[in-house]
Amino acid sequence: MVASTTVRAxxxxxxxxxxxxxxxxxxxxxxxxxxxxxxxxxxxRAGLIGLIGLSFCYAGMILVVNxxxxxxxxxxxTAFGLANLFRAFQISREIKELTAARAFLNGGDxx
Length: 111
What we know:
By secondary structure, this protein is mainly alpha-helical. It has one domain (6-105). The chain has helices at residues 5-8, 12-34, 37-66, 71-105. The model has no long low-confidence stretch (mean pLDDT 89). Keywords: Membrane, Transmembrane, Transmembrane helix. The chain crosses the membrane at residues 16-35, 47-65, 71-89.
């Protein structure tokens, strides 16, 4: 049984898929945090991109299925997705900076 009444209103497999996907995306992102180098940043960003899509899709689905009763959870999922989006942009910017610094140190062009 799914934990919240808001998610219980979704069709049968969607609540379980939501929680399982949140767990998988979070594990991928955390694995990237502890993975060394640029590869870790790319893995973290991949997990975040999955969480972004999942958050926004489920926020829309919960709002459609539950109406005003699902507003609080919809706002939470939207804020979670926006936070992940912000972090993914930060990671992209840091990767570009690292690439430019590596090219500068190697005497190459940053492009």
